[in-house]
Amino acid sequence: MSKTSITTVAMLEMTQEGREMTDEELKANPAVEQEWDIQWEIFRLLPTVKSVILS
């Protein structure tokens, strides 16, 4: 999981809104949610990719 990636998306969203956002607002933000979903999908795929590479 990349904290840098999530932080970048959150900062972009706040910049576009022109204001600071609370943690609750960021958690409910569609772009931030999508980034978490992408990160989790990559994390879930890692064991499969590793087994393919090693076989």
From TrEMBL:
Protein name: Protein of uncharacterized function (DUF416)
UniProt xrefs under InterPro entries: DUF416, YP001051499.1-like_dom_sf
Pfam entry (one): DUF416
Family matches, as Gene3D superfamilies: YP_001051499.1 domain like (1.20.1590.10)
Superkingdom, taxonomy of origin: Bacteria
Species this chain originates from: Klebsiella pneumoniae subsp. pneumoniae
